[in-house]
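Dear colleagues,

As part of the handover before I leave the project, I'm documenting each prediction I ran so the next person doesn't have to rerun anything. This entry is a single chain, and its sequence is reproduced below.
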Amino acid sequence: MQIIDPQERFSLEVEGSSFSLRRVDSATMVALERRCRGQEGSLNDEVLDYVLLDWEAVTSPMGGAAVPCTRENKLRLPAAVKLKILSAAQGLRATGAA
């Protein structure tokens, strides 16, 4: 068992795209929960925005242009991909960690 290091980064490959992630620790979860109180949006949206740092090969369905890794675009990812990202970031140990 290893603790979560805030500097730890790892990659997740999903459907031909690569996502650069970080894990989330309990102190960060508490801070994200506080931020969500009384605001629009869900805790999952906040966690996704925190753990997803960058991506490659994420494109627009309208013309196939590369899409920047912004909060708005992160929330537009398919639900199944979001779930894989959230699950990987909350796992026991990140594979491919740097």
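The chain has one domain: 10-89. The radius of gyration is 14 Å.

All the best with the project,
I.
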